[in-house]
Q: What sequence folds into this?
């Protein structure tokens, strides 16, 4: 983040302030809402290029006049950078004392010291948790100051290099050499980023390329080709190309891309191009960048960069995700704070004529020492600071914070990315059993977060179990690494090999995992692997139980109830609210798969949801650690509630008392029609469309798109119809689970006449509405408590080329007057299906 241009020298470039405006607004808008400017983070790269250009220009100009000194350089640097930075740090600490919890406030105070010392990039590289249960970095108030660290570290070296070269000419080979160093920086970033993205993002060696690019541009226009003026047409073309490179980077680069690296080259070249064209005669683009509002934003860009992130971080710290009103309010607040900082701190204090010793002491040394003293005091109070005097508050916070931790904070939860041999025999991983129990609970982190709940159930039902959880690794016996995140694939395979060795020691296996995540990424392939695993376990004589997926909440802050002690307006449960539908769809698929293979299935979501809405609250207490996982105390709280559920306890007792596969295997409903061997309507491979999952128990089709129909299609092609040359009609029979949350449509299209028969199934009302040509058919629908059987006879006119069966899982919803809309979401389960042809 470069210092603001004074605007008072003869070399002042208003177009560079305009370029600063693009850079800072890109960063600000990206941080407010990443969807607004997907590549907005590249604004930092623009700042680096500008900084390299301007600072190199100041240094080489002083060298040329014989007036350069290292002391003078840092004197100007301190005056321009430090006052506004220190003001920000002290205000941030004051706000942090008011709103932050002890552990977060300790981190804030320590980060303020590192930021004052221009080491923020090192601090955040080594202190920000990027692990499996990492907190959201968008609530770290000083995280953005890593850029100042990168710049100041560069300017510890670069002035010395320029001073050592002195006033000698910057020849072609010198410029080429600097260009090679810059290119090496980009190559290094490209190589480092995939394995260590934060190192590539925060460290100077991977960022020096942009700073050197700006410096090379300055050396070219001022020292190598000083009097060059490009033709007007060439300048305009270069400026437009440069602007396109920046705009393209803002639009097409996303935070998930490998960056920095080669993707940082276009924005770097674009920034250099605009600065260069402004240096050799200008262009219409440079003139537009000199527009007064853009220049004004550029002038306050340093202060705006400083203040925008803490405003957003503190707001998100308290409220979670920002709605549009909060986003706009934050923008107004950060602009106001930036103007005050620019007028009251930045501008007045940079004009001082005091000597370096006094500037260093007053502007830097004394405030930094004060920050260190504050940090020590905050650490001495355990992070409470001034709140330490309120003993009641301290006791509440300590108890609530202890209970909000992740599942692995409980000593009895045995979970790692890579299992250790000791975990397979450790008595601490054995629950409710003095000796090795016959039950093994195995899965990924979603198994780990259930251990507390199953612990309570086991105590009530009278059994013990060993728990083994492998983070990000599904409980599969066939190629589990294929379904794990790429970086955990090898550890997943090795860990499952260890589990495989002990499976014969247990005759009851409980499986739990993030089924939703695995299904969304791998679909039917994952279901096949899960089926193979259950089948293999049951064939070895083990009884298998599968626990369903908890609902994924909209957003989660497990410490929100603690923050609400001081800010009672925070509605912690409401902002976490999520629809239960997705979890129910996933659990339906897993249930069908499990029960069709003789495994039992259970889920506990009735205790986490009220009706169709899930807030993660059990007995009035928020019980999640993050969006996907229960806290350790939340899991125990769930188990305490389940102890009183006679049906759940009976299911577990039945499971423990069983010998091998259950007799619960789901049976397909009987069909009146004979299934055509060429037409397996329950085979997901025969259908086209997203959101299709099949098992021996049926086929589930879901629509999870908010503004489009997700349709499942089964085509009876001409090759099948040719097997029935004398058929003049057909009958389709479907048996569906009775849909209540959404209204699916079964559509039959007969080509080439394009005759469409629509049947809208209203399970809540127990009726089917025929539409289009379907009104002419003699169809029937039979409803039971849990299913609906729909029988549809239809004609096959001569020349029929194909028949298309379509399923729209959520064409409407109850209360919508049976109107179609693509805004609805939901699912439908087919338990049986057949199509029969009738001869003339």
A:
């Amino acid at each position: 983040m470069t210092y603001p241009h004074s605007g008072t020298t003869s070399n002042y470039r208003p177009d560079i302030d305009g370029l600063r405006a693009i850079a800072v607004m890109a960063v600000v808008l990206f941080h407010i809402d990443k969807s607004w400017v997907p590549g907005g983070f590249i604004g930092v790269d623009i700042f680096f290029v500008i900084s390299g250009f301007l600072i190199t220009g100041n240094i080489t100009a002083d060298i040329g006049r014989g007036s350069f000194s290292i002391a003078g350089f840092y004197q100007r640097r301190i005056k321009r950078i430090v006052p506004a930075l220190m003001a920000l740090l002290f205000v941030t600490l004051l706000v942090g004392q008011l709103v932050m919890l002890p552990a977060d406030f300790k981190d804030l105070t320590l980060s303020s010291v590192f930021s004052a010392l221009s080491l923020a990039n090192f601090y955040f590289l080594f202190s920000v948790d990027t692990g499996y249960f990492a907190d959201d970095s968008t609530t770290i108030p000083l995280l953005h100051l890593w850029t100042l660290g990168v710049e100041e570290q560069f300017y510890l070296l670069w002035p010395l290099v320029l001073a050592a070269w002195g006033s000698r000419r910057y020849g072609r080979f010198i410029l080429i050499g600097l260009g090679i160093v810059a290119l090496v920086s980009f190559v290094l970033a490209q190589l480092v980023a995939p394995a260590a993205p934060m190192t590539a993002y925060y460290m100077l060696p991977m960022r020096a390329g942009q700073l050197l690019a700006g410096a090379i541009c300055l050396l070219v226009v001022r020292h190598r080709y000083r009097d060059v003026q490009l033709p007007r047409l060439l300048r305009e073309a270069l400026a437009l190309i440069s602007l396109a490179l920046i705009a393209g980077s803002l639009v097409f680069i996303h935070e998930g891309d490998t960056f920095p690296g080669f993707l940082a080259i276009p924005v770097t070249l674009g920034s250099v191009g605009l600065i260069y064209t402004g240096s050799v005669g200008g262009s219409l683009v440079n003139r537009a960048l000199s527009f007064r509002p853009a220049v004004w934003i550029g002038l306050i860009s340093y202060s705006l960069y400083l203040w925008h992130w803490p405003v957003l971080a503190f707001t998100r710290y308290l409220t979670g995700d920002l709605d549009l009103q909060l986003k706009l309010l934050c923008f107004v607040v950060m602009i106001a704070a930036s103007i005050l900082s620019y007028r009251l701190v930045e501008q007045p204090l940079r004009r001082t004529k005091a000597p370096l010793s006094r500037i260093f002491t007053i502007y830097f040394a004394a405030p930094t020492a004060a920050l260190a003293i504050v940090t020590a005091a905050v650490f001495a109070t355990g992070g409470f600071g001034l709140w330490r005097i309120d003993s009641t508050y301290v006791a509440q916070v300590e108890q609530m914070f202890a209970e909000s931790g992740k599942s692995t904070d409980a000593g009895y939860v045995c979970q790692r990315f890579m299992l250790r041999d000791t975990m397979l025999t450790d008595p601490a991983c054995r629950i409710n059993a003095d000796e090795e129990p016959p039950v093994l609970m195995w899965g990924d982190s979603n198994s780990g977060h259930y251990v507390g709940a199953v612990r309570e159930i086991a105590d009530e039902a009278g059994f013990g179990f060993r728990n083994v959880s492998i983070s990000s690794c599904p409980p599969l016996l066939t190629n589990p690494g294929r379904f794990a995140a790429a970086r955990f694939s090898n550890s997943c395979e090795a860990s499952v090999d260890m589990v495989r060795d002990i499976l014969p020691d247990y005759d009851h296996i409980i499986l739990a995992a993030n089924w939703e995540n695995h299904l969304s990424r791998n679909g039917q392939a994952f279901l096949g692997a899960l089926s193979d695993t259950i089948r293999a376990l049951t064939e070895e004589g083990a009884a298998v139980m599968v626990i369903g997926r908890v609902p994924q909440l909209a957003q989660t802050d497990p410490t929100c109830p603690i923050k609400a002690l001081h800010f009672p307006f925070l509605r912690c449960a409401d902002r976490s609210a999520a629809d239960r539908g997705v979890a129910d769809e996933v659990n339906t698929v897993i249930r069908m798969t499990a029960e069709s293979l003789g495994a039992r299935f259970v889920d506990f979501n009735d205790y986490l949801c009220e009706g169709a809405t899930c807030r993660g609250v059990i007995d009035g207490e928020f019980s999640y650690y993050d969006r996907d996982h229960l806290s350790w105390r939340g899991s125990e709280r769930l188990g305490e509630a389940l102890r009183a559920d006679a049906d759940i306890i009976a299911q577990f007792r039945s499971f423990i008392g069983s010998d091998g596969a259950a007799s619960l295997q789901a049976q397909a409903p009987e069909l009146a029609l004979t299934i055509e061997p060429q037409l397996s309507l329950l085979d997901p491979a025969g259908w086209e469309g997203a959101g299709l999952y099949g098992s021996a128990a049926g086929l589930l089709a879901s629509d999870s798109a908010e503004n489009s129909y997700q349709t499942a299609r089964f085509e009876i092609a001409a090759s099948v119809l040719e097997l029935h040359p004398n058929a003049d009609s057909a009958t389709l029979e479907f048996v569906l689970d009775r849909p209540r949350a959404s209204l699916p449509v079964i559509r039959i299209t007969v080509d080439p006449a394009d005759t469409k028969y629509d049947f809208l199934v209203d399970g809540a009302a127990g009726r089917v509405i025929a539409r289009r040509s379907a009104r002419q058919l003699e169809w029937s629908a039979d409803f039971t408590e849990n299913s609906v059987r729909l029988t549809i006879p239809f004609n096959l006119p001569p020349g029929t080329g194909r028949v298309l069966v379509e399923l729209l899982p959520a064409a409407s919803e109850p209360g919508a007057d049976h109107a179609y809309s693509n805004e609805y979401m939901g699912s439908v389960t087919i338990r049986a299906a057949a199509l029969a042809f009738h001869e003339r």
Q: What stands out?
A: Confidence is low (pLDDT under 50) at residues 2-10, 130-134. DSSP finds 28 helices and 24 strands in the chain. The radius of gyration is 33 Å. The CA atoms of residues 447 and 478 lie 19 Å apart.
